[in-house]
Amino acid sequence: MNESAGDEWDVIVVGSGAGALSAAVTARGLGLKVVVLEKAPLFGGTSARSGGVLWIPGNGKFPQGEQPAGQDAVAYMRHEVGDAFDARRVAAFLEAGPRMIRYMEQETTAVRFIPAHGFADYHTNAPGAVATGRSIAPAPFDGKQLGREIRRLRPPLAEITLMGMMLNASDDVKHFFNATKSLKSLVHVTKLIAKYLLDLARYGRAMRLTNGNALIARLGKSYFDLGGELRTDCAVERLLTGLDGRVTGVEATWRGKRIKVQARLAVILGAGGFPRDPARVKQLFPHEIKGGEHLSPAAESSTGDGIAMAETVGGQFSSELSQPAAWIPVSRVPDPKQERIFPHLIDRYKPGVIMVNRAGRRFVNESDSYHDVGQAMIKDPDRGISEEAFAWLIADHRSIRKYGLGHVKPAPFMLLPYLRSGYLRRGRTPEELAAVIGVNPTELAQTLEEYNRHASDGKDPQYGRGETAYNRYLGDPQNKPNACVAPLASRPLYAIRVVLGDLGTFAGIVTDERGRVMRRDRSPVPGLYAVGNDALSLMGGNYPGGGITLGPGMTFGFLAAEDIAASAKA
What we know:
The protein is α+β, with helices and mostly antiparallel strands. The chain is built from 16 helices and 21 strands. Strand 13 and strand 14 (341-343) form a beta hairpin.
């Protein structure tokens, strides 16, 4: 295609994560001519690798005990966001979030959600927090409905699948852990495995999609059913502007050729933030500044392109937040062929597992949210000023065989491959394990002795582990009296080294309540919007609950499309 060729659209969407596709689906549904341009050969971005959860107060999916998008949600967000609280954007999010869910379910062919029962706000003791009702998830999806487009769907992160099989953390994983004790769980697991093996034989991949993969597949299916065009391998490199400063299109490379794509109404940036931009990461991540290791499981294509382009036309980038990204402890899985990163989303909550620092001491409630644990790693009092942020996850033999640890799978999978690769370390005693991982043997032995003494009664007086609804959500409810606490009593002991990673960036382009990109003088850049992680987080650098990235991302994508459609009629 040459530079002209009539390549003109009402709306150009840059990127193909949940926020971008929400905007594209809505704009197309409102009658606009839309094209999605994705740099990578696959669509879905980091959203396709995520848990797929959306935090939407008043979402309408909890008929019993529904929490409305009223004062409680405002109070909770005000408490969590602090000085970065933006009343206009928060009000827009709380009003439009439920409307977005209704629109997607009523007006699209495939987007459907289910309640994430028991998924509590992360800080349930804070004003306005709820024990359930605000987090929802995409319903599992049959990938065959995508037809040939399944080939372009970014797969889930391989490290958190079971040999390629996708599991829903809030349901499937619990059945796997309970398969030897419950006939219902055994039947559930048997059906999942049988379907997976059949799909593998027929299609070469899992077709039962869950989590973020299901969300992106559902959005993609709905967009394709509306006749929307999605170009992959199309790297947008520059925004085009008119004499009045209005953004009028983009310049990109597609299929080896430079093209110009014109936008009659607007360009929406949703390219996934900057977790894979080494320069900006080095500048803003506190542990990177000090020379520590950072491993991101985010999509490799999320290199900050949207943010950089917005800045060239006057958009304001802001990092004035408590944290520039959503932290998560991760581990590097040895593989000579490629970088493999495991995000520790579930194992930390299980009984028989603790986390210690370089001194061999506990320093955090291991069952707190990934972001809270990540912040604790950065603030660890035993960490020197110039030392990297890392820690050790430690489990006893009973726990690792029952639940696994990191990338290590539970029984009947063998431990030997992980021990041989060095991913998993082992010691017959606390002192022997300490020598293997390089921590103070006396401190580690004392840490375990003190923890075990109280854990025998299901208590953790040091950090209160298991005392909140969120802590218990991913624990083991059959472990009494505390779903998250049990002594590390069986031998040998095992350890995995974890460092900091991210689930996406919070710092971003300043936008208003309609998703419009704002200049430093608070005037909008005409014709330019930013959504998802390209936009400054609504949460002020904090992580109040499961889905606080995808919920606002999809909501402001929806609002941006509505605003553009309204302007077209004006």
